[in-house]
Write a sequence for this structure.
């Protein structure tokens, strides 16, 4: 079975599949297919946010560090998901961490190259930013729910 091009992978990914073909072609030029095995850390909170991923297979645990408790998983996400949004705004530092929970196949993007595309085409930039803001809002809501789970009720002795 022949491998799919980056354009083909984007054309079937829920996050971007409905974008105009010329936008997909430009976006495809900034990405490449990757495979990472279980346990690989994609990003660590406060690290340099210089890439992001559109997940096709597998799952990723989104986490953040809590002093005295270590890395706390706030959400586990699977296929058709965007991983990483902190690359979009200065200072380009990860707000969360992420580790591969189950082997993944994804398209990995060069964040600086995508920021250049956004600067060159404001309409594309607005659309992509709107989609990323939806993901951001979902992740923050998941964080809120996870914190409530962890801390709202007294521990059972």
């Amino acid at each position: 079975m022949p491998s799919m091009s980056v354009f083909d992978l984007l054309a079937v990914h829920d996050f971007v599949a409905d974008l105009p073909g010329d936008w997909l072609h430009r976006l495809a030029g900034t990405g490449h297919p990757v495979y990472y095995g279980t346990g690989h850390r994609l990003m660590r909170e406060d690290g340099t946010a210089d890439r992001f991923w559109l997940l096709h297979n597998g799952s990723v645990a989104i986490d953040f560090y809590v002093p005295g408790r270590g890395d706390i998983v706030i959400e586990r996400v699977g296929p058709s998901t965007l991983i990483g949004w902190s690359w979009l705004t200065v200072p380009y530092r990860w707000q969360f961490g992420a580790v591969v929970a189950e082997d993944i196949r994804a398209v990995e993007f060069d964040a600086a190259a995508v920021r250049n595309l956004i600067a060159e085409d404001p309409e594309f930039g607005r659309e992509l930013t709107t989609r990323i803001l939806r993901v951001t809002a979902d992740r923050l809501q998941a964080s809120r729910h996870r914190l409530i789970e962890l801390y709202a009720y007294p521990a059972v002795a």
Notes: The chain is about 35% helix and 30% strand. The radius of gyration is 16 Å.
